[in-house]
Amino acid sequence: MTTAKTTTTKAAAKPLNLRQKLAAVAKSLGDVKPDGYNAFHKYKYFSDEQLSGLFRQKFADAGIVLVPNIISEHIESFQTEKGKHSFLTTMRVMWTFYDADSDETIVASTPGQGDDPGDKGSNKAMTGSFKYLLIKMFQIGGEQSDAEADTKTDERHEEKKAARKSDAAKPEQKVENVQKGGRQANASEPQVERVSRLAKELGIGLDGLVRVIKNSLGVDVELPEDDKDKGPFMRSFFENLTADEIGKVAQALETATERAKDV
User: Fold this and answer.
1) Least crowded by CB within 10 Å, which of 118, 154, 173, 179?
2) Could you give the CA distance from residue 255 to residue 109 in angstroms, rounded to a whole number?
3) Is 104 inside any structural domain?
């Protein structure tokens, strides 16, 4: 007796459409945390480098191509609070997701703004538009992405109201080196100068100083692209630290100086 063999052929998997591919990319992300830190305003953010690195290979593997097209751009000159001249670039960018395996496309548009005294306003605006496209589309969020989470404006408003009431109720008196709410005093000018002097003695430059800050405070400092802006930026950064924070940086530099002498 002969038994006939039956062969079962597995059906080929149906290719994903563009929406399914984007959903698969979103699923593969997991819990993503911002790697950047703005030390001046003290908030975390997703850097362009982090987001580009996160999505570049995922899009390539899925056969997704992302193409930008600037819809509108407006450049306005203005004077900063410190009396310096700058330009605010406001841009809206249309982003088209193309499926390399079909003719399917998905289009989205996001705004972006860039404040720069030179020629980098458009670069910053385009980067901002790109970052918020990915942050909102893939719902990865970030501490700086929620406007309702910005309590600083409300706090400043309440502090000013409290200060006006206090000034009206109390005689004028001079109080030095103390901030509202009992918070620690900001870094003093001698402390800033001490850090600057120690860094020069070590010859580590601003990039080396950034590494010292990372090691002593656990803070990632993102220096401006333009070299002429780096010095003023670092001075503003140190002036906005507390006395204790800048003390830790100075101590780290002192230790490095002593070690250099022993070599």
Assistant:
1) 173
2) 51
3) yes
Shared domain for 200 and 137, answered yes or no, is: no
Point out which residues pair with 66 in neighbouring strands. 97
Residue 106 Rama label (left phi>0; alpha psi -120 to 50; beta): beta
Question: Quick one: average pLDDT of 69-97?
Answer: 89
Q: Is residue 173 part of a domain?
A: no
pTM of the model: 0.52
Residue 18 has pLDDT above 90, yes or no: yes
Structural domain including 197 reads: 185-263
DSSP 117: S
- Give the residue from 70, 115, 113 showing the smallest Cα distance to 90: 113
From CA 170, how far away is CA 136, in angstroms rounded? 49
Instruction: Give the CATH number of the domain where residue 69 resides.
Output: 3.30.390.80
**Do 196 and 139 share a structural domain?**
no
